[in-house]
Write a structure and sequence with these properties.
Elements (H helix, E strand, L loop, with lengths): L4 H16 L2 H9 L1 H26 L1 H6 L2 H34 L1 H11 L2 H41 L1
């Protein structure tokens, strides 16, 4: 295990980058319309706060001219525009994020940073039952081979 530590870290990094966190999967998830629908109430709340409070504070003259009907109309226009723009913006954001993150390198560094003892302990904790079954199977196979060898030696003499 210690000799192969870096090779294992490199291979796991490649697998993670290729299989689990590919750019296509991330882009699809982030730009999915269902994602927008989940965060839309928060977006609408911020737009509403902007139109009712911040705009009036920063531009008092505009604040005096717009009423409830105008605020509702502006909010509807902003939300519609966001629904159109959001998937493209998020797709571009996801592409840049994946490129900047370099998942393969990140996973490799994290695994390489773990001590062999930590990896072995984690492996034993998670696979102790399987390890015991493998040991038992090995012992049984050894016993059977030993008995067969003994029988062959006894009968051939």
């Amino acid at each position: 295990m210690p000799k192969k530590h870096m090779a294992i870290a490199t291979q796991v990094g490649k697998i993670a980058a290729q299989q689990f966190l590919s750019a296509n999967i991330t882009e699809e998830k982030i730009s999915d319309p269902a994602t927008l629908q989940k965060i839309m109430p928060l977006i609408e709340e911020h737009i509403d706060d902007f139109l009712r409070n911040k705009l009036k504070k920063d531009m008092p003259f505009v604040g005096m001219l717009i009423g409830e009907k105008t605020i509702s109309s502006l909010k509807k226009v902003f939300v519609t525009e966001l629904e159109t723009l959001f998937p493209n913006i998020m797709r571009n954001y996801a592409s840049n994020l994946i490129a900047d993150l370099n998942i393969e390198q990140l996973v490799r560094q994290k695994i390489a940073g773990l001590s062999v003892q930590e990896i072995e302990t984690s492996f034993e904790e998670n696979f102790s039952r399987e390890l015991r079954l493998a040991q038992l199977a090995g012992a049984c196979i050894g016993l059977i081979i030993g008995l067969i060898t003994m029988v062959v030696i006894v009968y051939l003499k």
